[in-house]
Amino acid sequence: MIKTPRTLLGIFLLPLFLCTSLMASTPSDKNNARLAQLDTYWAEVSRSVREGDFEGYKATCHPQAVIVSISKKNSTPLTVALARWEKEFSDTKSGKIKATVTFRFSQRLGDETTAHETGIFFYSTINTKGERTQEYLRFETLLVKREDGWKTLMEYQKTQATQQEWDVLAKHHLYKK
């Protein structure tokens, strides 16, 4: 059988087309899988705050993590901040306060092993007298994926946000929990 140029062209182009089609769907699938993993990560952060699980929260952080705070005008190892926050976790666990934190994102960048998440978190506490504190805060977090899951490497707490800005992010549906 004699192969015509059209047949030869098909022999060469079909595999190229199939590879291109597979490659085109792979990044989206990988990105969706990464975002699902990160959603699970943020749900764990929220759970540990809500339940006062200090060790659970600490496990979401890389041992070398850094926190940057605009309001405090400093950068410090996250272990220092964790030492300050441990009392609130203990108070939550014992029922002295109820604490919650939720996250909404304006940008989620990354690959299989790194992520840069930008958005607003809403942190709220209620003490036994019913007194409430709440804060909307712009943040950025740099995460790395390790064998035991995603870990915060850098948390950048930026400036106060408003409830209106928070509500706008709800419309993006980047994070539903």
Automatic annotation (TrEMBL):
The keyword Signal applies. Keywords: Signal. InterPro entries: Ca/CaM-dep_prot_kinase-assoc, NTF2-like_dom_sf. Residues 46-154 form the Calcium/calmodulin-dependent protein kinase II association-domain domain. One of its GO terms (molecular function) is calmodulin binding. It comes from the Bacteria. This is Calcium/calmodulin-dependent protein kinase II association-domain domain-containing protein.
